[in-house]
Every structure is written in C-alpha cells, then in structure tokens.
Amino acid sequence: MFGNLSWYLIFFEKNYPVAEYFANKALKQFPQQSWINTNLALSLLLQGKYQEAEKIYLELKDKPYPLNTKKTFRDVFIQDFDEIENEKIEHPDIIKIRLAFMNN
Known about the structure:
By secondary structure, the chain is mainly alpha-helical. It is built from 6 helices and no strands.
C-alpha cells in the first residue's frame, strides 16, 4: 500500500519528500518488496539527492525486476524516467543518471 502511495505522490502530487517517506516506510515493513526501491530512488533523485539515488540505481540496475522477470531494474528505471519526462517533470539529474547507466 505505501509503495503504491509513494508512486502516486511522485507522479500525481509531485510531493517527493512525502513519497520518500512512504517508500522508506514500505521498505521497512516489507523489505522483501524490492520493487519499492524504484519509487525511493526516483523520489530522492527528484529532490536533488543524487548520490543517495545513484547508489540505489547502480546497486539494483542489473538485477531482475521482481514483478516482471523478463525485465531488469534498469528497464524499469528507464521506463520511470520516460514517464517523468512525458509528464513534463524536468530535473537535470535525470539526464545525469541516464548517462551513468550508459557508462556502467
């Protein structure tokens, strides 16, 4: 529930600090739900907490995404970036993390 709430807060409310709070809360309650890290990383990135977000992105990028075993976390992260850009949410760190994915 809190994992989904964090996604809603990012994409519809654009309330990144509260999205971070609920993503962390969800991960504390359900640490096996690693997919929630996608919301945590994105909320951190959009707040300008690049180093914290980058750590999550780079740690998980090549691991299988648990909700779709045909995808990696990298695939889902890139999908999130595309959705953010489609929503006209701009942040310079999105370009920066995309470049980090290409170089790693």
